[in-house]
Amino acid sequence: MLKVLVIIPAYNEESSVPYVIQDIRNHMPSADILVVNDGSRDRTAQVAMEAGAKVLTLPFNVGIGGGMQTGYMYAKKHGYDVAVQMDADGQHAAADLPRLLSKVRDCDLVIGSRFLEKTSYKSSVMRKVGITFFSRLVSLVTRQRFTDTTSGFRAAGAKVIDLYAEYYPMDYPEVESIVYLTRKHCRLMEVKAEMRARETGKSSITPLKSAYYMVKVTLSVLMSAVRYREGKA
Asked: Gene3D superfamilies per the record (predicted)?
């Protein structure tokens, strides 16, 4: 049996994180759950511990990239075979965990995609434009078709755990982290995954941050492509 760790980076998610933990318990009772409390100012750490998760508390907010790298460092140190990344806001459905894990022996990273097949997910027009743009950009750069490069629902095998423990992009890292793995000759695939609407809390994504994200990540992906072609990966 695979030794599985579910990593949940969390910032001020006291309202939702207990339900995320219970959802995982219901569908994957054998998995260990690690909440990386990213400098929260509320009771995220306390409610996560009360719900039965392991908790690592960072002294200040480092962002999603720093939180995820901390989780992968923990997974590497403790010898996990698979590390699954899930959001703390309850948008990812733990019912999809078996589908992701069923494919993790066939590749190095499995990405839960909202668009590979028809799902119930509904997005705003602007969000859909951004997701489509990045998926096409990454598909062009990596020469592999991706439909949902911004998905944060992923299952990583041992090779990726080692790589992400050493390096993980810092700001809005989902897109960059895919390009990084292709540079390291990892095998990636997508599987269908549902995504629910956020029921509690507030997204940190604002129009200004979205614009910054589009520019920064696009430049990073293009620079990575150049380095890949020059053999500097």
From this structure: Spore Coat Polysaccharide Biosynthesis Protein SpsA, Chain A
Which two three-digit tokens encode residue 173? 């890292």
Average pLDDT on 108-134 reads 88
Amino acid at 89: D
Query: Which domain does 27 fall in, by range?
Result: 4-228
Overall average pLDDT of the 49-74 stretch:
96
Half-sphere exposure of 104 (CA within 13 A, CB side): 24
Please say if the pLDDT value at position 185 is more than 90: yes
Classify the C-alpha dihedral 119-179-156-32 as positive or negative. negative
Q: Quick one: average pLDDT of 38-66?
A: 96
Q: Which of 169, 179, 194, 107 is nearest to 146 (CA)?
A: 179
161, part of any domain? yes
Residue 84 in tokens:
């699954």
Q: Smallest Cα–Cα separation from 83: which of 92, 70, 93, 95?
A: 70
CB 98 within 8 A of CB 182: no
Q: Using DSSP, how many helices (H) and how many strands (E) does the chain show? A: 8, 7
Alpha helices in 104-143 (DSSP H): 125-142
Is residue 155 included in any domain, yes or no?
yes
- Give the CATH number, domain containing residue 118: 3.90.550.10
Q: State the Cα–Cα distance between residues 70 and 165, nearest whole angstrom.
A: 7
